[in-house]
Amino acid sequence: MKNQNLTNYKKLYGPHHFFFLPLTAIMMIIGVVNYFTDDANSLVWKLFSIVSFALLYLAIMLRQHYALGNQDRIVRLEFRLRYFELFNKRSKQVEEVLSFSQIAALRYADDHQFGNLIERAVKEKLSSKEILKSIQNWQVDTMRL
Fold first, then answer.
1. Contacts of 2 (CB under 8 A, 6+ apart)
2. Taking the model in full, what pTM does it have?
3. Which pLDDT belongs to residue 104?
4. Half-sphere exposure of residue 51, counting CA atoms within 13 Å on the CB side?
5. Which of 33, 79, 88, 133 has minimal CB crowding within 10 Å?
6. Residue 145 and residue 22: Cα distance in Å, rounded?
7. Over the chain, what HEC string results?
8. 94 pLDDT band (50/70/90 cuts)?
9. pLDDT tens string 44-58
């Protein structure tokens, strides 16, 4: 398994990012260009452009909305479970102080560094970027969306 770190922790979904989105963007560009160059069919190209833009916009927004919403919930649940497993107490007080981006960054820390980073994040108000930069042994997450 490939080691995870600050440069490779993000994941792209190939069919969506490299096929569907570029294809709909190209369709929109073709429609706009033809709208200005083909006077005989300008209304058709205008409608084609509008439909292409709507598809592109919906594809981006819906995919992101559903995937990120579910992922955020799962990240919070993972944090609560891990916190309870390591410290045998509820994470409610810590969760109220930390932002979601801080909680999301903490998930990459291994168990030995997890507690220390939580304390530092609360006391020093570390940003998620600072938390990620502080991680020495990354906990691999291959199941992200």
1. 8, 140
2. 0.62
3. 93
4. 9
5. 88
6. 19
7. CCCCCCCCCCCCCHHHHHHHHHHHHHHHHHHHHHHHHCHHHHHHHHHHHHHHHHHHHHHHHHHHHHHHHHHHHHHHHHHHHHHHHHHCCCCHHHHHHCCHHHHHHHCCECHHHHHHHHHHHHHHCCCHHHHHHHCCCECCCCCCC
8. very high
9. 999 999 999 999 898
2's tokens: 């490939």
Q: Mean pLDDT throughout 83-104? A: 96
- Confidence band, pLDDT 50/70/90 cuts, at residue 99: very high
Would you state the structure tokens that stand for residue 118, as one six-digit string? 């939580």
Q: Which residue has the tokens 């997890």?
A: 114
Query: For the purposes of burial, counting CB atoms within 10 Å of the CB of 138, is it exposed (0-12), middle (13-18) or buried (19 or more)?
Result: middle
d(CA 122, CA 80): 16
Pair of tokens at residue 15: 């069919």
> In this structure, are residues 109 and 139 in contact, taking their beta carbons and an 8 Å threshold?
yes
